[in-house]
Amino acid sequence: MMPADVTWGGQSDAVFSAQSGDFMRPIYDVVDKLLMGGRINITVVQGQLDLICATVGTETWMNRLQWQVLQDFLSSRKLALYSWPGTQETGGFVKTSPDGRLSMYYIMNAGHMLPADNGDMGLKMMKIITGQEKP
Predict the structure, then answer these.
(1) 83-92 per-residue burial string, b: 16 or more CB within 10 A, e: under 16
(2) 84 is in which domain, residue-wise?
(3) Are the CB atoms for 68 and 51 separated by under 8 Å?
(4) Is residue 107 in a domain?
């Protein structure tokens, strides 16, 4: 439970100010260097209802990467994800490069605020990323 003297979102202005130099800046070169360096896995998360950073824009951005294994990632299949065992409703999809270095999660019923919009799938995604569950 949140303490009574804590305001939800009270820090957002300070966080935005501190990160303003990176806001809406293309980072193809940074992501390419990280992928080519071979030591860091990259995860891209896309909320299906996100109107500011729409799925088609994210996919277009990813198509501009120069990573030598990009075509293998682009041609890989999406795997359906379910938030709870036995659930019939698809909660999202994940697409991963054959070497496991690049993954993209498409989360249903979520926008920018994934934990608030679809917390069950956000938790499932984090468990997969951290190796606690298999997709």
Answers:
(1) beeeeeeebb
(2) 27-129
(3) no
(4) yes
- Prediction pTM value: 0.83
- Give the length of the chain: 135
For the chain, what is the domain count?
Answer: 1
Burial of 2: CB neighbours in 10 Å, binned 0-12, 13-18, 19+:
exposed
For the beta carbon of residue 102, count every other beta carbon within 10 angstroms.
25
> In this structure, is residue 124 part of a structural domain?
yes
What tens digit of pLDDT does each residue of 21-64 get? 888 788 889 999 999 998 899 999 999 999 888 899 899 989 99
What CATH code is carried by the domain that includes residue 85? Answer: 3.40.50.11320
Q: How far apart are CA 68 and CA 81, in angstroms?
A: 27
pLDDT tens across 71-122, in order?
A: 999 999 999 999 777 778 899 999 999 999 999 999 999 998 888 899 999 9
